[in-house]
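Pair request: fold both.
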Amino acid sequence: MTMQLHLQQVPARNGRLWIRHGFKVFQRQPWAFSMGILTLSLCSKLLILVLPGLGTALLLAVMPLVSLGFMLATHLTLQRKRPDVATFLSPLRLTPERSRRQLLLCLLYLVGISAVMGLAYWIDGGSSERLQELMAAGKDKDAIDAAATDPRLVWSGLTFGLGMLALSVPFWHAPALVHWGGQGVAQALFSSTLALWRNKTAFLLNGLLWGALIAGWFAAMLLLAGMLGLALDPALALQITGLMLSPVYYASLYFTFVDCFMFGAPSDVLSRTDA
């Protein structure tokens, strides 16, 4: 079944509301969303371990389907239903034609990521590998500082970050537009790009707020660990922060789609009292 979707422009404040709704949905089904993230994390590590190289490529390729799976989980939660494993597989069970479109989106996403990574690696010119070798060998601080300030590292990181940001724009809503709107691959990519452009202020605010949340949570963990006299590795603290906030982030993705395309559950559903 194809649903009518109408592109609309929303105020900037909706970028904050998307996060708020994400927290509310997570509170309704914390176990389901948390297990979804943990399962994804464990499967990712297992896939990379069993199939080095190929596993990483497969993991990157399925990310559009992962985001759609969490959108479907939020959709079910709003209907007072419990999402399960089948929820994340449903995008490939709708119709053969839409399944092919979803798989083509995954392939195009992998091609895009490969291009961004390839360009960043070319700009890097091996400077990151040299820095890692110096740190692993325990070289003197001056040598490490010199390698760390190599301008190629900065440009490589900037290229990768901006490239991934640009790539996310056409793929942000594309899987949902194929699933619910029945759009073709090219139309879905174009519609997603147009939606993010028209609502760029809301998405900008949303991104800034997520950045502030991540930074605040990360700093709070380090501060608490210091007050308790615990030695918490910053990398581990950042990983824990990601695991704790990722379920809310993925739960909120559905609302970006709802607002941009006038689709979703009744507008008052989040204000109702849970039974």
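--- second member of the pair ---
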Amino acid sequence: MTDSSASTASVLSLIASDMAEVDAVIARRLDSGAPLVGEVSRYIISAGGKRLRPALLLLVCGALGYTGAQRFNLAAVVEFIHTATLLHDDVVDESTLRRGRATANESFGNPASVLVGDFLYSRAFQMMLDAGQMRVMEILADATNVIAEGEVLQLMNMHDASLDEAGYLRVIRSKTAKLFEASARLGAVLAGADAQIEEACANYGQALGTAFQVIDDVLDYDGDAGEMGKNLGDDLREGKATLPLIAAMRRGTPDQRALIEHAIQTGGSGELGKIVAIVRETGALDVTREAAAAEANRAIEAARQLPRNECSEGLLQLAAQLLQRRA
């Protein structure tokens, strides 16, 4: 286990008993008259992962002193929404590997993945009603819509070598960071926090989610495929102009820029070795890590506005350790 993995595990241990309750809600709400729904859902949910979105909701609840049972229900809701996006993402991206094993679409086919993703979205909306708060519905409905918009933006940006850093950040703040933001905001709403604390929690979630995705994009060129559980170079094969490539094109020679542009436009990973070398030689990974550091520091500043206790300390630790992430 890497230092960052151990650090994350120590934070998640603070809410281990809460997460067990969330798992019980997930198991109960996956019950369906169509056995394939449970089979596909359990396949992807059991694949592991850090469950950062529900963990974020639970940690914010802990930091703000909320102990009601709705935290388990809404943590399960955000995990269902996240799982639905993964099912749909892997179909769109034609991915074959996630967290070290075959994706659901690879194992069960595209139709099953899409339809079970739809089931999880609709089940999540059924569960939102249990909270009995229009504000909760508003946050999650808005988040789900923004995530879908981010997916469409990313699709439009595929094979576009002219995408700049602002356009890249717009996509990941919609596609990835929005559910982090909603998870943290929900914890504050459940706790009845005032507007200032609610915004601090939302800002923390957005910054943490953005930093998480930026580091994920670094690892596509500087990670270990075995540790990450996915194929290195997948982003390039899919024609995604991520920040390491954007920075490398900005800092490289005309020939280096042309090589990267051609690879993005054609989705060709045949020159992956050369492109990885360019990304490293130009200092693009340092530029990208600096961008992640800025977001992590924004998250830390937001978390410092919360009451001091072990859960808020855990939130600070999650942000600080992101920069050591290697998988």
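Observation on the second member. The longest strand covers residues 97-98.
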